[in-house]
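$ ./design --mode recover --in tokens.txt
reading tokens...
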């Protein structure tokens, strides 16, 4: 996208058009406590100077940063064909299918995206996507509470902490009790989970793999929650699903997840792509859009939006959700990615990622001052217990041009010495060796002992 600045005259005319005297009038309803009280420190640059500055940043990043961080967003290979396809104006400019009868191409892509999600999750029906994995999880909590008519949800502490924050934001004012079950060495404490579940529980939310990258025991969770008539909600990773038992096979009622690994670039953490699928009996309670395949009066196949029980199409008090859109372009990218790679291609991505992760985990565990937090199985991400705080190790490795992982202590008090390391099929043997050798060097030189 080209950089197009606004002149003072442009701003004046825009303000006149909307009938206000200044930009302050536009934001006057925002409380002072929520507003920035100082001017942004943005340098005044011409377009060539700004582009040169950005290009310098880009060159610096290309030369220096090797990423082993995950935590919900992963650096997978994206086929060149994907960018070419989604850049076509039919996809790039088709914001949303408001006029369904003239948006057949967009509706077909949504339908195919939903089909891919159903195949990955083993569920009956999927929607056209959500904003991200966090909003998908929060909407699932609302559905479970609504259909069970219960006001208590149980969430494992091993679910992505950002998801849990969004869930709290959604439910805080609705009178729904949120019970968080603690983890034990990176896995859900099943004994405490059983204590938390009772006849008032609407649902349990567990992640597979969880935030630490570890694989949970789902069978006992399913048994506990269905025994009391609640819903099992699973947060999944779509790449890992290619080699794991599907949530449908585990007996999940609702499946949510982050679709970014399916052909969406890192982009410094956004935009993202929420996945949402469920059993057929919950289809009328699902949020967002659902595209369906049908036939017209002449018997020709066509695509329509259906079951739109959202507030754009129904009285607000009757709506299942106020989600009125979907991540159309990201969902298109995911559909193209799944079509390009196919069932075996995605499985190969998952297997290569797992192979790289296990090779690296074994190498790191052999370094003095590093050990695996858990013996539980994992796919492409794993927690490493370090002799020093993970934040210090990340800072030290930055000097080597390596982002070695994510600091678990940022969200989990007591795990300040735990580093979450993620590997994908993109990481080459030379890059993996570079990470291991860098940590070996830090350990042998005693640098870590002087960082604090």
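writing sequence...
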């Amino acid at each position: 996208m080209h950089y197009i600045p606004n002149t003072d005259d442009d701003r004046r005319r825009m303000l006149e058009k909307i009938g206000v005297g200044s930009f302050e009038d536009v934001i006057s309803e925002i409380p002072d406590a929520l507003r920035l009280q100082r001017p942004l420190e943005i340098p005044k640059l011409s377009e060539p100077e700004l582009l040169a500055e950005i290009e310098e940043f880009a060159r610096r990043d290309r030369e220096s940063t090797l990423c082993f961080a995950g935590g919900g967003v992963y650096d997978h290979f994206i086929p060149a064909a994907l960018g070419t396809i989604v850049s076509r104006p039919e996809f790039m400019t088709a914001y949303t299918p408001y006029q369904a009868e003239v948006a057949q191409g967009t509706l077909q892509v949504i339908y195919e995206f939903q089909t891919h999600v159903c195949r990955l999750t083993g569920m009956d029906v999927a929607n056209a996507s959500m904003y991200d994995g966090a909003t998908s999880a929060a909407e699932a909590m609302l559905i479970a509470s609504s259909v069970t008519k219960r006001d208590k949800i149980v969430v494992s502490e091993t679910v992505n902490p950002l998801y849990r924050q969004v869930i709290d934001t959604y439910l805080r004012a609705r009178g729904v009790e949120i019970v968080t079950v603690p983890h034990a060495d990176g896995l859900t404490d099943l004994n405490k989970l059983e204590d938390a579940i009772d006849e008032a529980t609407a649902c349990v939310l567990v992640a597979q793999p969880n935030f630490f990258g570890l694989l949970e025991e789902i069978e006992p969770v399913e048994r506990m929650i269905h025994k009391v008539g609640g819903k099992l909600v699973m947060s999944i990773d779509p790449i890992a699903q290619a080699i794991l038992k599907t949530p449908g096979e585990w007996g999940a009622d609702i499946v949510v997840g982050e679709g970014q690994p399916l052909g969406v670039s890192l982009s410094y953490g956004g935009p993202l792509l929420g996945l949402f699928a469920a059993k057929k009996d919950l289809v009328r309670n699902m949020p967002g859009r659902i595209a369906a395949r049908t036939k017209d009066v002449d018997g020709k196949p066509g695509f329509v939006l259906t079951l739109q029980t959202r507030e754009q199409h129904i009285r607000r008090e009757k709506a299942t959700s106020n989600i009125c859109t979907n991540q159309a372009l990201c969902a298109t990218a995911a559909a193209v990615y799944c079509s390009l790679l196919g069932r075996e291609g995605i499985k190969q991505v998952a297997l290569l990622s797992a192979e790289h992760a296990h090779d690296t985990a074994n190498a790191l565990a052999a370094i003095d001052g590093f050990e695996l937090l858990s013996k539980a199985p994992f796919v492409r991400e794993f927690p490493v217990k370090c002799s020093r705080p993970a934040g210090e190790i990340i800072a030290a490795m930055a000097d080597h041009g390596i982002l070695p992982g994510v600091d678990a202590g940022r969200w989990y008090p007591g795990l300040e010495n735990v580093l979450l390391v993620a590997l994908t099929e993109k990481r080459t043997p030379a890059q993996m060796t570079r990470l291991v050798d860098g940590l070996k060097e830090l350990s042998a030189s005693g640098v870590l002992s002087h960082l604090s």
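exit 0
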